[in-house]
Amino acid sequence: MKKLKSIYLALILFFLYAPIVVLVVFSFNASRSRGVWAGFTLDWYRALFRDTRIMRALYNTLLVGVLSALISTVIGTMAAIGINNMGRKSRRLIMNITNIPVFNPDVVIGVSLMLLYVTIFSIFRRGELGFITLLIAHISFSIPYIILSVLPKLRRLNKSLFEAAIDLGAKPAYAFFKVILPEISPGILTGMILAFTMSIDDFLVSFFTTGPESDTLSVVVFSMARRGVNPSINALSTLMLLVVLILLFIINLRDKKRLTE
Length: 261
Hints:
Layout: H1 2-26, H2 43-50, H3 52-84, H4 88-98, H5 100-103, H6 106-124, H7 131-156, H8 160-167, H9 172-201, H10 204-209, H11 217-225, H12 231-260
Helix pairs in contact: 2-12, 3-7, 3-9, 3-11, 7-9, 8-9
C-alpha cells in the first residue's frame, strides 16, 4: 500500500514538474526544434533581449501587474474594513456579490468588460482599448482576492485595540496606521502578492481588454503559437522561474529567522 502511494505521488510530481524541466532544458538547446537536441547554447537568451516585441510585452505585463496589485490592494483593504463594520445581513449580501468575479470564468469577465468598454466608447464616441482599459480590468478582478485575504485578519483583530488607542489620545487616522494596519499587514501583503500573481498569469481577460500597443506577455505568446513559439520564450520563462525561486527562498529564509527569534 505504501509503495502504491509513493508511486502515485511520484507520478503526480512528474506530471507537474516534467514540463518545467523540459522548458528549462530546451531554453539552452541550439536547435529551434523541441524534438532534437543540437547542443548547449545561450543564443536564445541573447535573442530574447534583442526582441523588442517580447521586451515591450514583458514591460507591459510587469507594469500592469505592479500597478493593479498596488491600486487593488488599497481599494480592497478599504472595502474589507467597510464590510467588516457592516451588520451580518449586509455583510453576507456584499460578500456574495464580491465572490461573483472569483467564481466567474475568466472568459465571461473578459467579454463583459470588453462589451462595457465598447459601449462607453460608442456613447462618448472616443476612446479605444489599450493600457488603461487593461489596467482597469486587472484591478477589477484583483479586488475580490484582496478582500478575501484581509477580512480574516480583521475578524481576528481585537476591536478593543482601536478603542484603547482612541482613549489614550490618538486620532482615528493615527490609531489606524499605528495599531490596526500592522495587525492586518500579513493579510494585505498576501493579497497584494496574490493580485500580482493573478495579473501576471492572466490571459483571457487581457486578450479581450487590451489594444495592439499594450499586449501582455501571455497575449504575445498566444499570437506566436500560431506560427510556432519562438525559443526565446523558453529563455524568458526560465528567467521568470528563476526569479520566483529566488523570491520563495528569501521569503522562507525570512520566516525561518522570524521563528528562531
